[in-house]
Amino acid sequence: MKMEGGAASPNFLGQSKAGYVLSNVAEVVERILTFVPTKNLFRIASVCRLWRNCARRVLRTQQRLTWLSASGSSIYDEHVLLRTMAEDLEKIYMLPQTALLMVDGENFSWPFSYRHKKARKCEYEVESDPVEKLRCILPSTCDVVGIVASGIVVTPSGLPSSPPEEHEDGEAGFSLLFPAMDGVTIRPFHFCKKSLSESSMEEAGLINNPYLKVVLMFDYETWKAGGGRFLKKLLKPLSQNNVLIVGGQVERAFSNNTTCCSLGSFGAVGLTFSGSKIQGASVLVDQGVSSPKAAEATIQRLKAANIPERNTMGFMFACVGRGHNSYNNQRNVEASAFRKIFSNIPLLGFFGNGEIGCDRIVKENFTLSETDADGLQHSFTTVMSLVHFG
Fold first, then answer.
1. What CA–CA distance (Å, rounded) separates 269 from 84?
2. This prediction's pTM
3. What is the C-alpha to C-alpha distance for residues 317 and 352, in angstroms, rounded to an integer?
4. Would residue 256 be called left, alpha or beta, if left means φ above 0 and alpha means ψ between -120 and 50 degrees?
5. Structural domains in the chain plus CATH codes
6. Residue 247 backbone dihedrals phi, psi, to 5 degrees
7. DSSP code of 323?
8. Residue 353 to residue 121: CA distance in whole angstroms
9. Residue 52: what pLDDT?
10. Which label site among 19, 216, 255, 319 has the fewest CB atoms less than 10 Å from its CB?
11. Where in the numbering of this chain does the FIST C-domain domain appear (predicted)?
12. Quick one: average pLDDT of 358-380?
């Protein structure tokens, strides 16, 4: 009576009134399939042509962001996010086209050997590389941008209104999953000194792109000789345009472009967001902010952007020198202030070694404050931002 994945067999469909409806009335089938996780949709699509067409239409309507997060030690000898993703990707209601992952550096042992005796191997027998396991867990067509940082900011998976958590230390991570969205173009990039050029920046949508609205950029090892010039080359054209740019300096990064740079060299990874539906704003919590009241007053200025809460993501990129160090040993101050002001927007981010961004509040004509490449780089600050995807 049942096929793999829980779909009814064609013989059963023809033996009852319900079967007749499910094999002939597309509106009913399509409505039912909206309650089916995406992975099962692909199984169901193989039953018959009607179900395949209905499944395709349902997939096109699933355009809301999804995030998976985890914290605390895993019972397996692998990072807690890997296990969470392996289990929870079975339950999501969208097909990831792009994934932004952030994990803590203390517990994500890459690019060194990583042993996990009890962990379930993926079908490609990945033995020791957590990056390769991530690629096995996600769809093969999904672009991956990964960040390893000193600390991680997560909102627990599920409700956007869940209290966000600042994990300045300990095991934590998240995966922000982007589906295909009408009116939104997302392009990943990964540059090092040998791959950065005007043509590669144009291909990533960073220059000569009139529809560019937001850039998430994460640099690594740029404290090394030549790294400062490299970063300025990236930031200069963006600082002169109406583009919201936020991010910071991280410990390591990885992407689908595994041949970009050699071990130990500097570079940058990120995502560009283009399209008429994109909105964004950011504020800079500077090093002089040292009380919960002052932090709340700074983050409150994001309200001036009038950004809708639906399908919006909050990002927090903080210096490792902030957190409890800035608030008389009180933890989770800035994340809690964000939740107090924005009750239904998830907040994700990291604690890093430098911050990229500035006060840029979107006006009706999308006019942003003016700055230069140096004015976008900070230390002992927090960049708090909102990005809306329509």
1. 24
2. 0.83
3. 7
4. alpha
5. 10-61 (1.20.1280), 63-390 (no CATH)
6. 160, -145
7. G
8. 34
9. 78
10. 19
11. 227-359
12. 66
| Omega before 346 within 30 of 0, i.e. cis | no
- What is residue 154's three-state secondary structure? strand
Farthest-apart Cα atoms in the chain, separation: 74
Residues 6+ apart with CB under 8 A from 158: none
Structure tokens at 176: 């922000």
Q: 7-11, 125-129, 173-177, 306-310: lowest mean pLDDT where?
A: 7-11
Q: Collapsing DSSP states into helix, strand and coil, what is residue 279?
A: strand
Cβ neighbours, 10 Å, residue 388: 22
Which residue do the tokens 């009380």 mark? Answer: 291
Q: How many residues does the chain have?
A: 390
DSSP alpha helix (H) spans, 69-226: 80-88, 130-137, 198-203
Residue 295 CA to its chain's centroid (Å): 24
Q: What is the DSSP string of 96-134?
A: -SEEEEEEETTT---SS----SSSPP-TT---S-HHHHH
Contact by Cβ (8 Å): 65, 389:
yes
pLDDT in tens, 253-298: 988 876 666 777 899 999 999 999 999 999 999 999 999 999 999 9
Question: How is residue 94 written in tokens?
Answer: 């969208």
DSSP state of 164: P
CB 148 within 8 A of CB 63: no
Cα(58)–Cα(39) distance, rounded to whole angstroms? Answer: 12
Amino acid identity of 331?
R
Nearest to 380 by CA among 248, 267, 280, 266: 248
Partners of 314 in the β-ladder: 347, 386
Distances in Å between the alpha carbon of 171 and those of 61, 81, 107, 150, 248?
Answer: 35, 9, 6, 10, 20
Residue 351 forms beta bridges with which residues?
Answer: 151, 318
